TrEMBL record:
Taxonomic superkingdom: Bacteria
Full protein name: Pentapeptide repeat-containing protein
InterPro entries listed in its UniProt record: 5peptide_repeat, Pentapeptide-BTB/POZ_domain
Gene3D superfamilies the record matches: E3 ubiquitin-protein ligase SopA (2.160.20.80)
Organism: Fuscovulum ytuae
Alphabetized PANTHER family for the sequence: BTB_POZ DOMAIN-CONTAINING PROTEIN KCTD9
Listed Pfam families: Pentapeptide (PF00805)
SUPFAM superfamilies: Pentapeptide repeat-like
Length: 100
């Protein structure tokens, strides 16, 4: 099914849209609940003010991303790296530098 220049809200429930493409599409204020995005590719996206909760991002790769003002709360960060440096090592070095 192709949708072009559509400006209506959709209610989608219990659907398989795997392999779909969304290009130049406004999904502002869209709510995704109990969705599988495994293997999804998101690029050139404005996710300002986006809220992600109760999600699994293990194995995800974030490249060329503006993380200004991002808040991580109650997150499991084991094995996370930033530019190849283990996050746990960064925190340990920071704690040593502030005497903690």
């Amino acid at each position: 099914m192709d949708l072009h220049h559509v400006t209506t809200r959709l209610e989608v429930d219990d659907a398989d849209l795997s392999g779909s493409r969304f290009n130049n599409t406004n999904l502002s204020e869209t709510i995704f609940t109990q969705v599988t995005l495994a293997g999804a590719q998101i690029s050139d996206a404005d996710m300002t003010g986006c809220r992600v909760s109760d999600a699994t991002l293990s194995g995800a790769v974030f490249a060329n991303i503006d993380l200004s003002g991002v808040v991580l709360k109650d997150c499991r960060l084991t094995g996370m790296t930033i530019d190849g440096v283990p996050f746990e090592a960064m925190v340990a070095a920071w704690r040593r530098s502030v005497g903690g």
